[in-house]
Structure formats: C-alpha cells, structure tokens
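Lab meeting prep.
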Amino acid sequence: MCINKELGIIIVAGGTSARFKGKNKLLEYLLEYPVFIYSLLSFRNTCPDNQIVLVCHSDLIEEFKRLANKFIPNNRFVYTTGGTERYNSVIKGLNTLPKNIKYVAIHDAARPLANKKLLYECLDSCMCRGNGVAAKKINDTVKRTANDEKVIESVDRTNLWAVETPQVFKIDELKSAYKELLQSNAFVTDDAGAMENAGFPVYLVESPNINIKITHQSDIEYVKTLIQSQ
C-alpha cells in the first residue's frame, strides 16, 4: 500500500510514567532504540512525515526531537506538547495536523510492537465502516469484585474485547466527538470511548499479534525478549 496523503497519525507520548518507577518509560531502550522510536519506524511511510505528530511531555519535547533525529535522520515529524489528560493530548495533536487530513490514526507510543499491517487493517475498516479500532478477544476468565476484592460474579467473556491502539477514525467525526466530550464533561480512557460517548458506532479490528502496552519496568525485559525472538 502506498503513502496515503489523507492519513494523519498522532503518536501519544505525553504521559508521566507514574507506574513505571524510573525515568520516562518511552525513553528506555529496547535493545537498539528507545521505546517511542519503534512506533515512528513502524508507521513511517504510511503517510508523509509532516502528517505524523508526536505529542510529548513539555519537559521532554527537546529530548524526543533529539533522539528522533539521531535514529531517523532527515525526518519531518511534527511535535506538540501534551495536555493534562490523555484526551487533551489527542485534541492538541488533532489541532496540529494539516487541513488536508481525512483519516487519523491515534497510537500509544508505549505500544512499540504494533506494526504497519495492523495500521492498514484499521485504516481499511475506517474507509469501509467509519472507523477501525485494534482489539483482542478476551480469553481469560473474568471476575467482577467488590472494593475488598471479594468476587461478586463471573462475567461472560463471549463478546468481551481488550482494546488497543492504533485506532483510526474520520478526523471530522473524532473532532466532533471530542467537542461533545468536553461539553458533557464525561470521562473516557481512549478515543473509541469518546466516539461512543458522542453516539458514533465503533468497529473493532482483531489484532492477532502481541501488542503489549509498556506499563511496568518488567514489561521492558519482556518486550526485549519478544523483539529478539522476531
């Protein structure tokens, strides 16, 4: 598939890594590269460089630029600072993209194993059905608990999915969804949630490969092992 000039990509890298216990997890090295570089390398050439926006913490934006220029020379990536919450960061990214964008992919930089094939499948779903959200069917037994961790019930997992990124939407619809979110003061944890809150149907795209989100220090060693095995 050739470069899509109507696609924009927002890579969200503005978190504080509070649960990681150390420096910013996106700057940790996974063998050859820092965590965030993998997403840039995976998704580069799906759209023009200047339609890829990296949303960074304000204190680290120059370090992200330096490392991106070191490992991906002559790039034309665009940078902006993150907001208080994740959705604020996404909104800032949306406002940074050029006017010609029709479709937008949102991806968490903490998921370094997502590949170009998955992005294209989400984009195809967006073109055909209105959006495409990477997700996995839940295979584990699921329990609902009270605050004291006592099990209240077992949850039927038949139609349960764990949602991932990338998530691809028509940019006008996502902007509209976030405008409504801000007006309603609702809380969501991902972009698909903003779309649901605004009444848009959301369509999942099965993600067949491991697409772990790095959260804890132990995840770094696990992902290193996965990269080595590939």
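Slide two material, second protein:
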Amino acid sequence: MSTTPDQPAFFDVVLHQRAYRELRPDPVPEALIEQILRAGTHAPSAMNKQPWHFVVVQDAEQRRQIAEGTAAAWAAYAASASSSAAAHPAQDREDPLFLEAERWATQGLAVAPVVLVVCGDTTLMPLEEMGSSIYPAAQNILLAAAALGLGSLMASLPIYAPDDAFARVLALPSHIVPLATLPVGYPVRPLGRPRREAIQTRTSRDRFGQPW
C-alpha cells in the first residue's frame, strides 16, 4: 500500500515517535480517538485474551482531579529523589530531564484534552502475566497517535496518586487495574527525532559481549 502525506511510512513514525509533554488544550476528534483505540486492540496478547480495558477521560473535572493527584504523587517522588540525589546523580533536581518531567507532572498534564488509561482485566488474565499483553497495546496507541499528528507519552505516575485517588476518579472496580496513562493531544510544537544510542552499543551477536 502506498503512503501519502497523511499516511507516513511506518519507519518514519517509529523513528520519530517520542514523548510530548506540552500539548494544546484543543479537543481531539472522536474519530481519531477511535482510530487510536483500534490500533491498541490490534496488539498481540497472550492466547489472544485481549485483557485490556481502555478508559478515555475527556471530562474536564475528572482530568483536573487526575492532574491534582499526579502533582501530589510527583511531590512525594521529587522529595525522595532530592534526598537520594547524592547516591543517584541522575535524580538531581537540577537535571534538565528531571525539570522537564516536573513541569509535565505539575502543569503539563492538566492541559491534555484526553487522558487515555490502559487497564488490565484480571478476570481475563492474572495481573503478573499482564504486562506482555498490555504494554504492546500501549505502544500501538503511541504509534497511532504519532501517525495522526498527535502528541502523547506513556506514564505511570498518575496511577500513584495518594489515597487510591486515581482508581476512585475513574470508578474502577477491583478487577480492573490501571497500568498506564497516555495523555493525548495536539503538540504545542513539533519535536525532532529522539536521541538514541547506536544499536551497536546495545546489541550482541550470538552471545553477550560479542560485537554486532
């Protein structure tokens, strides 16, 4: 199948997909959301159990509560990271990546017009076996969003809002477990390709340590 400007080549999408932490508040058309979800449901899953359940949060009040819970979770994490920065320099609160994540957790998420929550249904699969089915679905969603010109990222921080607030906001029953949040919206500005190590630095031939 040929590609058009509206249908970028697969590897163009894969090599340019990255975390977008600054999104515009403009609504995302329902048709695009459904395309993204359809991509998620075409991920592989163990024994084709398809144990995912997606909660698409567009309601302004619910999004506000999720953002507040995320900021509270970040405050707890940041305090811990700051106290352990000497042992873990990557967690230095002056590190640009740390500051970028902080801006997203305390401000950026609140702007996202859609928060797509990927949950696992434990009546279909034990929670400890869920990851190999759920996270491919999340990756399909990230790639689909990128192909449609939308920004997104995958985060678990909102799930750790204090006092189980995240599950309460979504009225999740006990057998539906949230595993990832994916804010989706139109990017404030386009970003270049993500920085990645050369494959040779992360690849061995036949056995570990033998250069590729």
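Talking points for slide two:
The radius of gyration is 18 Å.
The chain has one domain: 24-186.
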